[in-house]
Amino acid sequence: MWRLLGLTRPMAGVMLLAIACGVLGFCCATFLPVVATRFALDALAGSLPPMGAVAGALVGLAVARGALHYAEQTCNHYIAFKLLAHVRDLVFGKLRELAPAKLAGHDRGSLVSTITSDVELLEVFFAHTISPVSIAVVMAVVMTAFLAGISPKVALVALVGYLCVGVGMPLLGAHLSADAGRVTRAQAGRLSGIVLDSLRGLSQVLQFGAGDARMGLIDDESRRLSDAQGRLSSASSTVAAASGALIMLFSLAVMFLGGSLVVSGEMTVDGMAIATVAVMGSFGPFVALANLGTTLQGTIASGARILAILDEEPAVAEVTDGEDIEFSGTSAHGVGFSYGGEEVLDNVSLEVPQGKVVGIEGRSGSGKSTLCRLFMRFWDVDRGSIALSGTRVDVINTRSLRASEGLVEQDTFLFHGSIRDNLLVARPDATQEKIEAACRAASVRDFIVGLPKGYDTMVGELGDTLSGGERQRLGLARAFLHDAPFLILDEPTSNLDSLNEGVVLRSIARLHGSRTVLLVSHRPSTMAVADQTYSMDSGRVS
Ligand SMILES: Nc1ncnc2c1ncn2[C@@H]1O[C@H](COP(=O)(O)OP(=O)(O)OP(=O)(O)O)[C@@H](O)[C@H]1O
Predict the structure, then answer these.
(1) Does domain 330-541 have CATH number 3.40.50.300?
(2) What positions does the domain ABC transporter occupy (predicted)?
(3) pTM of the entire structure?
(4) Which residues line ligand 1 (CB under 6 A)?
(5) Looking at ligand 1, which residue's alpha carbon is closest to its atom 25?
(6) Domain 2-311 is in which class?
(7) Average model confidence (pLDDT) across the chain
(8) Domain residue limits, the chain
């Protein structure tokens, strides 16, 4: 909570304005009936001021109440939405640092839920917690001082009432909802994770008839979510009912106390009427806090999840004060690496001279893709070193490293958008000629121009109808378009038929001399294009 509060520091001025407007607004709301009572008492005594003054005072207070409440809400929401934008910016910046190594193990659904609904829930904290609490504290002081001027005993009873509603009710809410707020947040994340997972694995679910089991899982998680939500709403209804009852109780207490003080001569009838009306109308700022006990827990849970992401240390730190390189070949020396547990690479050394195509073959799981990712510096090596142009990758500026390398992984991810958009990811300023040349080299041009909308065909429209081979060739076209001097191709032909494989291999062969290629494949036909081939077995290279 302190750290979330810390974020509001640059907004302190607007926050003070919100609090000032809130206090003045509640003063208008509370003193409107008080002033009206005063006029009524004056009328009874036969000394009513002119009606114009009476109407002016009452209408003035009512209009001021509306305007001040509007100003308070505007300030609060200005602060909240500025801060939400700032928090989103921090979270996306952090995700960029954490990707891909630290995001590999994250539950995607939870992550999406944190980025979207958790950040949004902070609005409750920034717009509906900080200033209402401050306003309630100030109003408690103002009202107690005002009532003490009429009768200290009445002021004391009112203060106890304010504490019961403003402090007791949030505590009751927190007690009744227990950890339902935290559970609701966590459960919402789990549910989105499972739904996302089920959607992505839809064909497996259908193929193995796992629909009922999957549905059962989603039902169970939904039930847990609605149980937690049910506990939350039941707690807030109880709190709302109890608050209403307390307000009536304390108003009656003030009235009866006032009556007895009038009888004992310690208070005038006018004083009793004004004190009772003032107390009855003064609970607004405290009622605004009553539900904090149920809502704040969820908000704090969301804040904790966001802060946990912001606190996570990236596996690989971005380099901005290192060296820029001109690519002239790459090498690995004595590289050892594990993902945490078992060793995946052990003492791996290889040379990829400039302009050459170097192949790596080996059985599944021997660590070929891992080595590719280490060349990209998605992870840092545990032992040994990887260097580009003789400079260790961990001292090369990340921007320069990314500009020097292009990676085609086994699975090509296509963003929602047109084929052209997906290709331009690799090089936003590419001309149509460059796009065509890259697609021709990847043997995908004929497929694209054969589509009714050509390069403007939406990938989303195609959905799963795009074959594995077509996606793979689009991935290759992207890499060719990227124009990096060093291309890392991880199984670039695994989904291609021999005709398309032939076209792609001829394109790779044409790269000889102009680009350097590290080519991973288990296909002898693909390996034939390499100048030199390393063999990988159980994390070792020969
Ligand atoms: N992100 C990861 N976290 C933990 N372990 C991983 C991760 N990625 C890969 N591994 C493990 O590292 C080992 C090497 O995997 P890698 O993908 O590098 O092998 P590969 O030779 O490319 O296999 P294939 O030819 O099947 O793609 C495997 O045992 C794999 O389970």
Answers:
(1) yes
(2) 320-542
(3) 0.72
(4) 104, 339, 344, 362, 364-370
(5) 364
(6) mainly alpha
(7) 89
(8) 2-311, 330-541
